[in-house]
Amino acid sequence: MLTSIVGTNWGDEGKGRMVDLLSSDYDVVVRYQGGNNAGHTVVNDKGKFILNLLPSGILRPETANILGPGMVVDLAHLTKEVASIVKGGIPIEPGHLILSTRAVICLPYHPLLDQLEEDRLGDKKFGSTRRGISPVYADKYMKKALRMGDLLHWDSLKEKVADIVEWKNLTVEKGYGHEPVSAEAIMAWLEEYGLPFVPFVKDTTAYLDEAIKACKSVMFEAQLGALRDIDYGIVPYTSASTTLASYAPIGAGVPYAKLDEVIGIMKAYSSCVGEGPFTCELFGEEGDALREAGGEYGAATGRPRRVGGFDVVASRYGSRMQGSTCLALTKMDVLSYMEKIPVCVAYELNGERIDYFPSAIDDLNAAKPIYEYLPGFNCDISGCRKAEDLPAEALNYVRYIEDAVGCPVKYVSVGPERDAYITMF
Ligand code: GDP
Predict the structure, then answer these.
(1) What is the pLDDT confidence band of residue 253, given thresholds at 50, 70 and 90?
(2) Which residues contact 125 (CB under 8 A, 6 or more apart)?
(3) Over the Cα atoms of the chain, what is R_g?
(4) Among residues 271, 248, 251, which one has the least CA distance to residue 261?
(5) Nearest to 330 by CA among 4, 17, 10
(6) Rounded to the nearest 10 degrees, what angle do helices 133-141 and 109-121 cross at?
(7) pLDDT tens digits for 354-363?
(8) Secondary structure class of 227 (helix, strand, coil)
(9) Sign of CA dihedral 207, 210, 216, 217
(10) Which residue has its alpha carbon closest to ligand 1 atom 17?
């Protein structure tokens, strides 16, 4: 079974919690895109863990976890993250964690460039997490990036680093007027944070190919959501990677593999970190109450998230782009306090009602939400474990979303704990 688990919206849909739950059925969990620019919070019997780079299966010792070729890896961050998991009582050995030879290394000057550019943009900034993700992907496409496999060729690394640093300083020093990057400092950084990971670096293509041939089940775990995709998202307020399920086999190392299932993770309401158009945004007391109830603060950055009601237009588009075969609706319990539930059913653009998600940033900026209200649940649903336990209004809400998005809801999550969910079919 090859399953991809992806976000259908702006990210932070609760993917981490769903992957943690569902990964028990899989032998291998692979991250296939992005870096440490987003975070999964996973709560289980061992405690609360924030994962930025590591696949959520890392908390289960029997699961193999891969950082695939499509990823960008900040080794200093990985060092910290691994240490926090080990501190939580979960040992991390080669085999339990595998790092692709093809994954790209995010070097210290990548976050620096991210920061220099966001600062240069001032009011026009993209709202980057400043973790260096766009600069490092740009270098990958310029063919000026180091890959994890370079750590296995230490003898030639010094020369490679000297060459790329010389090129990089054309931007850092001559472009931004910043103090130049030192090749020696980069080598020292690679020695400190890269060398300890050498035993973990492997050709994941061969590993996964064998795993699939041996009929092992593989879960492909995405970060962020469809609306943050570099091609189909809200450009330029997107990530620099492909966040879509169809990229999973490529970014994982088995480009020829076909997915059996795509689980679209969708939140029962909307949230968005950072800048850019967010048509369904709720403000004032209504927004504050929802943010508070949902604990909507960024896992990677701690930034308060913007919140809104469920957005039919964006969610239908996002689910379609992901090719979801089923949905997992998360954080349904958060809506328990509402007497009536706001739903953004369409947008208004230039005086007309539209139900498609515009591709042009100007149209998205101009679009206004059209809100309708559905009946509230009138009770706390966090204790429900079966579809029959849900009040009629909550079932009605699930059916409404299935119809509006055009995809069946297989799971409903009603709390952060591992067992706080309902399987609908
Ligand atoms: P991710 O990056 O997509 O995993 O999402 P976040 O980092 O935003 O994590 C979601 C947050 O919501 C975490 O703190 C989870 O523990 C929590 N969470 C996930 N699912 C549920 C749920 O169904 N109900 C509640 N109340 N919290 C949830």
Answers:
(1) very high
(2) 118, 119, 275
(3) 22
(4) 248
(5) 17
(6) 110
(7) 999 999 999 9
(8) helix
(9) positive
(10) 416
Q: Distance, CA 316 to ligand 1 centroid (Å)?
A: 21
Q: What are the structure tokens assigned to 207, written together?
A: 């590993």
Looking at the chain, the number of H-run helices and the number of E-run strands are 12, 20
| CA nearest to 222, candidates 386, 16, 2, 1 | 16
Handedness of CA 300, 301, 302, 308 (dihedral sign): negative
Instruction: Output the residue whose Cα is nearest ligand 1's atom 7.
Output: 40
Q: What is the pLDDT of residue 303?
A: 78
Q: Using a CB cutoff of 8 Å and minimum separation of 24, what contacts does 19-22 make?
A: 19/55, 19/56, 19/57, 19/219, 19/221, 20/44, 20/56, 20/57, 20/59, 20/418, 21/418, 21/421, 22/219, 22/263
Whole-structure pTM value: 0.93
User: What is the C-alpha separation between 414 and 422, in angstroms, rounded?
Assistant: 8
Q: What is the SS3 assignment for 232-290? A: CCCCCCCCCCCCCHHHHHHHHCCCCCCCCEEEEEEECCEEECCCCCCCCECCHHHHHHH
**Active centre residues (catalytic):** 12, 40
Tell me the pairing of strands 368-375 and 340-349: antiparallel
Residue 7 CA: nearest ligand 1 atom is 3
On the question of pLDDT at 299 being above 70, the answer is no
pLDDT in tens, 384-405: 999 999 999 999 999 999 999 9
CA distances from 403 to 260, 316, 392 (A): 23, 10, 16
Pocket of ligand 1 (CB under 6 A): 7, 12-17, 38-41, 43, 299, 330-331, 333-334, 413-416
- Ligand 1 centroid from CA 294, angstroms: 8
Asked if 23 and 29 count as a contact pair (C-beta separation under 8 A), the reply is yes
- Residue 210 Cα to ligand 1 middle (Å): 34
